[in-house]
Amino acid sequence: MTTDAFTPSPEPLSLQEQRKRIPQKPGVYRYYDTGGHLLYIGKAKDLRKRVNSYFTKNHLDNKTETLVTQIAHIAYTIVENEQQALVLENNLIKEYQPKYNIRFKDGKTYPYIMIKNERFPRVISTRNQIKDGSTYFGPYPSIGTMYAILRFLRDSYQLRTCKLHLSEANIRAGKFRPCLEYHIGRCKAPCAGLQTEEDYQTDIREIRQLLKGSYKAVIDDLKTRLDRAVAQLQFEKAHLLKERLEEVIKNRSKSSIGTEHVPDCEVVTIALQEGLAAVNHFRVQERTLVATRSLVLRPHYGETEAQLLEAALSQLAAEDEDFGKRILCNLLLPEGSDMAEIYQVSVPQRGGERKLIELSLKNCEVLLEEKLLVRITRLAEDPKMKLLARVQQDLNLKTLPRHIECFDNSNIQGYAPVSSCVVFRDGKPARRDYRVFRVKTVQGPDDFATMQEVVLRRYRRMQEEGQPLPDLVVIDGGKGQLSHARAALEELELATQIPLISIAKRLEEIYYPEDPVPLHIDKKSPTLRLLQHMRNEAHDTAISYHRKRRSQETLHTALTKVPGIGAATAKKLLKQLGSVKAVKAATLEELSQVVGPAKAAAILAYFAPNEVGSAGE
Prior knowledge:
- The chain is an alpha+beta fold.
- It has five domains: 15-79 and 81-106, GIY-YIG endonuclease, CATH 3.40.1440.10; 112-255, no CATH class; 265-375, 2-Layer Sandwich (Nucleotidyltransferase, domain 5); 391-550, UvrC, RNAse H endonuclease domain (Nucleotidyltransferase, domain 5), CATH 3.30.420; 561-616, 5' to 3' exonuclease, C-terminal subdomain (DNA polymerase, domain 1, Orthogonal Bundle), CATH 1.10.150.20.
- It is built from 21 helices and 19 strands.
- It has helices at residues 15-21, 47-53, 62-70, 82-96, 143-156, 168-172, 180-183, 197-212, 214-231, 235-255, 305-319, 338-342, 351-381, 383-394, 447-465, 479-491, 526-560, 567-577, 580-585, 588-595, 597-616, and strands at residues 27-32, 38-44, 73-78, 112-115, 123-126, 135-137, 265-273, 276-285, 288-297, 326-329, 344-346, 403-412, 415-425, 428-429, 435-438, 472-476, 500-504, 509-512, 515-520.
- The strands form four sheets. Strands 12, 13, 14, 15, 16, 17, 18 and 19 form an eight-stranded mixed β-sheet that branches. A five-stranded mixed β-sheet has the order 9-8-7-10-11, sandwiched between helices. The protein has a three-stranded antiparallel β-sheet with strand order 2-1-3.
- The protein is elongated.
């Protein structure tokens, strides 16, 4: 089943801008209206020239004028030559039947060879496929080539061409007599019972095999017959055979994908650029492109190209029941992939299969250029996106930093060490996503080790939970903090996936892990103001949490010094009574209601002497 080559999304580019992006290559173009409905499918040797011709006012008929007023989006697929474009166009038109391609419904479509579903099947040409059990081969982009193949078959096999109803009863009753075709050696007269049905079906089975892999078999047989005719001095017959041989060879070079050594397959390639991945799909049947489709994906979880390719293959195979088992790709699938177990996936390095990969990749690259142009256009209209584009440019980032995280530490000479992670989305604080960390493994005032611990904990958890990774990580500090944060990302194998920088307070210098020389940004730059905002948010969050933790630990320390009272009991006492002072002033009965009589007695025994001593003083 043929699939649509492109499903359009809202397109901010004007038609004029879209037309400028169309390459000067052969291919198939499609016009869509504002609702995404397919209006027209056409082919062209030069896509840009042909599409632009629709928008010149000089040679428009009424139908074309009406079509042009409805066009909102232009999509296209690049192929290698006009013949491929012709066949692809025909397959897409048959599947989708756009209203402005209605002229093809009048029988003016491309020819097939049909083996008719009947008792003594005829092998004839047709332009219409009817679901009556007949078998169709083609389409053939050249009617001359199709007739050359038919002539070869009829000369090699004495097949009937009449429309007589050759039922067993009619033949047995002798209703038919051999015609001229029989007498000149072009038919074996099954109508008169002179050829059995079994013998006739044997010929049909051989013809089916020739048509399934027709070119090599036909060419070899024509060459053999040509040599035989020359040896027998049958020069007129040799001349006819030579013409047919040249016609078949000519058709093979035009309508095929360029090589006779590529079996039926699916070609799926992927290209990644600036945070966007484009996937292109070709279907090859009988060495001919019969379908094409494109997908655009945005990596959200730091997936590799191979992982994205695997996801695309899964979607294509799930949506298309005719998806073939043999797949050519430009990348190997991830190790242990389920798709690699179900399908025969290979990465060709040379020959005709590699040419197919390169052609598919060209379509990926063109689609990415279109999408990235759309992104640039949107950036020019959105103030938030303008800011992020400036950050991307100033910091030399590969992707737009829509998700940025910033880390800072806080402690007093190693006491109650904590860290904070603040999150900015599209240049604005996302406070619900802020996180604070109580340092677990570091003893003493080691700011470097603390930074390594919290960065490791943060992104290990994001990996485990499948959360989208940030487009940029900012560390509040200098080279030391930065190198330890980098070590944490390397341990998680994320160092190449997450851009990392640090900002030092004194001179507002920007450091990169791989560059010892800092970057100095203009003090009035919006990029620096955003980084300072993030650093201040991270600092305030870390300080607030540090104060809270210090206060809690101070209160807990006063109570946990009581023999038999642990942190959980101290927390319970503070929750019920409100403060350490209230605990000291409580009676045995009040304390017993919270922690039981034994612990209540211990608390009174611990604090009572102090209270008495204080009173005595």
